[in-house]
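ugh ok fine here u go
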Amino acid sequence: MTVRAVVHYVLSIVIISIYSARVCPFFGELLFGKRVILFAVFFGIALVLRKGLIELGILGDKYITRIRRQVALDFGLYLLSGIGIALYNYFAYEFPPGSGLKVIMGSITLGFYASIDLGLETERTINTEAGKTGDSIHISDNFVKLTTKIIIVAATSMLFLIIIILLIISRNAGIFSHHEYTSPLLIKKILFEILFVVIMILIENINLIISHSKNMNMFFDSETKVLLAVANGDLSRKVTVSTDDEFGLIAAYSNKMIEKLKERTDDLLKTRDVTILSLASLAETRDNETGAHVLRTQRYVKALAVYLKCNPRFSEYLTDDTIDLLYKSAPLHDIGKVGIRDNILLKPGKLTDEEFKDMKMHPVYGRDALLKSKVALGSNSFLDTAVEIAHCHHEKWDGTGYPEGLKGDNIPIPGRLMAVADVYDALITKRVYKDAFSHGEAIKIIINGRGTHFDPDIVDALLAIENEILDIAREHSDMQNH
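structure:
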């Protein structure tokens, strides 16, 4: 039982107690307190009956059914209350049928407004429930348009107003017919009664407008929040479809649009990922490193980034989306090697100073190749990350790295992460010009480079997740990938 329902029924008792005396001389003969008790008994029974029927599940489980049955239940209870009062007065006080019809008319007028308002309240409740469960209402093909609903409510309100005013006039018609002169006091009394009815119906209409406005605001808030999230790249959100009308249709089409957008985005992301792997594979065909190196390093980078997202120095940058971009972009760190001559890239031994000078150009080649794509595609967070990884993964914390000699925090975070991952993997991997170091030996070398070669915090992160790094190295070892 909601507070709103109790308020409606209590106010109805007061209003109809006043109204009945204005339209029916027989009720006018009863004391106000007696009228209140009479109406309180019947409407109180209706309120208790309402609570019991709802608990028994008369409203049903389907959302639209609940709203319609809620409206029908309250309107029906108001009608039955009016009929009950009319029959009681007919048998107990021998009031004429006309008196009973006037009471029934007042009951269905108040029931009309109460049932619609409580139906709107149920609509709000359903919206909250659907928002929590993720359920949606199925929009019917023949729903009643909002404009039609407004016309029906407005026309019905005018009809009730006219009928009740006529009832007030008819109650006093006998007085006018028996008096050649009607006192100004009597006219004022009649005008006051009409004014009371007009004000009551005006208040009921204002209440319906406010109640419906709450539902509209609820929809617009939901729609706005979801569309704002979608505009910011979150395609997992949905608008709650909780009404069988134009607003429900807008919500349903918004969700359909988001689903289509998500499908196309997923296709683009798959295309992007395939392109990355293709480019990385192209680099592998010209390099003496294995494809397992690419798999390991991208997993090292992700593991380090996940750990560092709680570090104040990195937390603002390392969002979940950025970490995903780092993971996807890492395979392109050596894409620039496709521009290195075979006699240098595939040399089975140590490079000369001149050859190493040429080799040090591969970050520049990688950057330039990706920047050309960026020019064609426009600003793109994925390409920005890929450029930073390809260009800066050989920079050193103390500024002695290449190709730009960047120092400290001037080195982009993706480049700093990739530097640790790339060097660690190079150390534990056998190459034609060296044997593989053990995990422990590789860790010692990286610790020695803390604050000179590598960002100290990233080295500390590597030590903190050392077991996870070792598991990655074992899971994707070269032996398993041959």
